Amino acid sequence: MTKFFRIFTWQICLVGGFFCGLLPPSAAAADPPPNVVLIFVDDLGYGDIGCYGATKHQTPNIDRLAKEGRRFTDAHAASATCSASRYALLTGQYPFRANVYNPVFLRSRLIVDPDRTTMADVMKRAGYATACIGKWHLGFGEKTPDWNGELKPGPLELGFDYYFGVPVVNSHPPFVFVENHHVVGLVPEDPLVYDQKAETEAFPEKFGTSQIGGSKAAHALYRDRSVGTQLLEKSQVWIKSHKQDPFFLYFATTNIHHPFTPAPRFQGTSGTGPYGDFVHELDWIVGEVMQTLKEEGLDDNTLVILTSDNGGMLNAGGQHAVKRGHRLNGDLLGFKFDAWEGGHRVPFIARWPGKIKAGSESAQLISNVDILSSLAALTSQPLQSNEGPDSFNVLPALLEEPAEPIRDHLVLAASNRKHLTLREGDWVYISAQGGGGFTARSGHGLGGPPALLFAGEQNSDIENGQFKPDAPDSQLYNLKKDRSQSTNLVREQPEIADRLRKRLEELKTATLTRPAAP
Questions:
Q1: ω into residue 12 within 30 of 0, thus cis?
Q2: What amino acid positions are annotated as catalytic residues?
Q3: Which of 267, 280, 318, 329 would be a feasible disulfide site paired with 45, CB 3.0-4.6 Å?
Q4: Which domain covers residue 421, as residue numbers?
């Protein structure tokens, strides 16, 4: 059964019943369906914002979200890499099931099967207008994208009514904007050409400018220091034009991915260099989105979720921030790409006045892979067994504090497929040695044992920036007692490690890990 046929034949729930089971019928019937704004930040680490411990730069607008909503302390991206994390978010399926571990780039086809149900499909069949604005990074087309033609299938074939944004990532080409199916500003007489140098601004950590060029008109519209502002303005316009009916906005910022290119007004405003300046711009963007909702009378009936695609990255800007006393991922071990907690434990804040308790905090284990199922619950939609197979409904954790954990486990991935990881209760089992991300200094950043040495982080398998000769080939940590993962217990607790290893093998082949519908 194709996705189109499933959506076309789906029986849409009554608008008044979107919240059935969580409010009395009379209240549910009186409440209009909430708008949903999902702000998906790029590379924002667990320690990068004030309400999670940052002190070297300030994030008053994001901190206000936490004061007016709920802050989660055990939220995770299903993958520590950007494209794979976005795959999990959109599909509610672990990315390793689709063999997605690493970022996709200029020549990559769409890595999401258009027949697979996405979070946008879920909202669209509930009667919502849907938009994706910002970073896409999931590929286009059925084969190598034709940047001069139709970029199809893409976001519009995955349930979004509208798309505008950066097609890949702000550090890699093509350095243009895409709107719906086409590159913005492209004209036939001035096409984009593979293997030609692009005429774009030069910044450190901006790679691959010789991979595609030409099209002076299209490149001229993409100015690195104004990208954040342009994406914000597009989001504001879209919100204002859809305020009469329920809407779902997936706003995927390019902040704070390198290169760090804040607008001039934010340069030099932080104590952590360009890294912190880019965080300051992000905080302003979030504040402007919230102000727009308030001005349009949408503030009280909009569920706003802010989270990150993975942990903070120890690139050149991150290293500079660390030297100034900033801890990208707080007290967590490791960085983006790693199976260690710093790679995937991320900020997660939810705000919905009158529904989510202001100033509250939750230690529930949740993941971005859970968004799809939670949106289905929000709109009173049952899911078929092939829809969001790894996505748990964590809506109750947003609205109240359940007495029992919603998730009894979570599978996590690093960029190295050998480092598939199982979280179960207080325990986390990593199926290989090390973090599974960068192993040393590369063009993108610092990783592995040298990164831990640089950042002053301790792990019992590592000494002086190198693995010990007798370091075990797998890892086990008790996060309740040792959240910083300083001590590998795989040899001290072999029975626990073996049980988790066996369960991970079972979960890898399971077709459904979320609770089946009654």
A1: no
A2: 82, 137
A3: 329
A4: 411-509
Closest CA to 120 of 400, 376, 487, 433: 376
| pLDDT tens, the chain, 518 aa long | 455 444 443 433 333 333 334 443 433 445 789 999 999 999 999 999 999 999 999 999 999 999 999 999 999 999 999 999 999 999 999 999 999 999 999 999 999 999 999 999 999 999 999 999 999 999 999 999 999 999 999 999 999 999 999 999 999 999 999 999 999 999 999 999 999 999 999 998 999 999 999 999 999 999 999 999 999 999 999 999 999 999 999 999 999 999 999 999 999 999 999 999 999 999 999 999 999 999 999 999 999 999 999 999 999 999 999 999 999 999 999 999 999 999 999 999 999 999 999 999 999 999 999 999 999 999 999 999 999 999 999 999 999 989 899 999 999 999 999 999 999 999 999 999 999 999 877 667 899 999 999 999 999 999 999 999 999 999 999 999 999 999 999 999 999 999 999 999 999 999 999 998 76
Pick from 405, 409, 427: nearest CA to 474? 427
In this structure, the dihedral spanned by the alpha carbons of residues 303, 343, 93 and 302, taken in order and rounded to 10 degrees, is 0
* Residue 20 placed within a domain: no
In a domain, 18, yes or no: no
Write down the pTM of the prediction.
Answer: 0.94
- Map tokens 């952590």 to a residue: 272
Q: Report how far residue 495's alpha carbon sits from residue 279's, in angstroms, rounded to the nearest whole number.
A: 43
Are 292 and 164 in the same domain? yes
Q: Which of 402, 422, 439 is the last residue of a domain?
A: 402
- Please indicate, yes or no, if residue 3 is contained in any of the structural domains: no
Q: In this structure, what CATH number is given to the domain that contains residue 171?
A: 3.40.720.10
49 within a domain of the structure (yes/no): yes
* Helix, strand, or coil (residue 274): helix
CATH of the domain at 460: 3.30.1120
